[in-house]
Amino acid sequence: MSIIFSLLILCLVVVVHEYGHLLAAKANGINVTEFWVGFGPKLFSFERKGTRYCLRLIPLGGACVFEDDNGEEDYVPGPGAFMSASVYSRIVTVVAGPFFNFVLAFFLSVIVLGLSGYSTTELASVTPGSPAEEAGLMAGDRIIKMDNERVHLFEEVQLNTQFSRGETTAITYERNGERNTVYITPEYNEEYGRYLFGITGGITDKDQNFFSTLRYSVYYVQFWIKNVFKSLGALVTGRVRLNEMSGVVGVAAAVDDVYQESKSYGALMVLINMLNIAVLLSANLGVVNLFPIPGLDGGKLLLYIVEIFRGKQIDRQLEGKISLVGFAALMLFTAIVMYNDIVKLFK
User: Fold this and answer.
1) Angle, CA 39 vertex, CA 38 and CA 42 arms, to 5°
2) Domains annotated on the chain, with CATH
3) In this predicted structure, what is the pLDDT of residue 243?
């Protein structure tokens, strides 16, 4: 069952991304020759308004294919080809994929928080003798800011503590309607292998109305976006090693772990946790695809911005070579991450 959930989640996230490209392309007069769901042998297909829609055997991802060069050196883009569209139409089409991932993440967050509520920043407990207790924090205090950054969910508090390198953190909290700021230097914990403040949350607000659910869903998506940047920052600075990163195999393993832990609590808990993973992956895909790396949407976006300043298109063959190099590097990175995933499975 966990394998089915993994495939469905990955397929949903990628197909919605590609569907964003599809809608934006059609809205800007760009011909889409084919849109498919899944990979491998074709199960069935149909054509509508010049686009062939296909369902393929392996439910893993999808693709949106534009009318373009097909690798021919003497190809001249005609009306409706992607490269014949204005640079602004191409930018909108490229950005639409990641944008739809954020929309999906928000929509799923509304469902998750509507069903389960959201975790407040109210402290459930403070560990005796911890830096937090010594600073004066108490159970029931509500954390408002960390280093002058507003926090709305306890997940944001955990994110800030998780990536702490032991630096002193300014924490603004509210108690009995009054706000105070304390400065806490976390202590390194050998058992957990990271710095701890000595606070726990876990207090959930399930009495929110529809509009507060919408508002906190925005905060929830923002949290996962921050998580991507902090994780990559930790990778760049060496606080997280490359072999700790997870790919498709790692995602499947994580889905299995969550499914096994959730199923004893009933179908609703399984649904909530699977949707949670989909939120994480959709926000992650949206952010990563906007990075200015050749082969990603962000790499194309960067080239089109350069085109605006140059006043003319970048040579198609040069753009193709840049994308090919970027794609090869991404495939190498994916292979390394997948290898690490497989090694971890057999440890």
Assistant:
1) 95
2) 1-117+210-347 (no CATH), 118-205 (2.30.42.10)
3) 58
Contact 10, 60 (CB under 8 A): yes
Contacts of 193 (CB under 8 A, 6+ apart): none
Q: DSSP letters along 19-88, please?
A: HHHHHHHHHTT--EEEEEEEEEEEEEEEEETTEEEEEEEEEEEEEEEES--TT-TT----TT-GGGS-HH
**pLDDT exceeds 80 at position 277:** yes
- Reported pTM: 0.87
The answer to which of 31-40, 140-149, 171-180, 319-328 has the lowest mean pLDDT is 319-328
| CA–CA separation, 190 and 234 (whole Å) | 19
Average pLDDT over residues 292-312: 90
Q: What is the pLDDT of residue 7?
A: 83
User: What's the chain's average pLDDT?
Assistant: 85
Angle 128-129-131 (CA atoms, 0-180°, nearest 5)? 110
DSSP states along 182-209? EEE--EEETTTTEEE--EE---EE----
The pLDDT value given to residue 311: 85
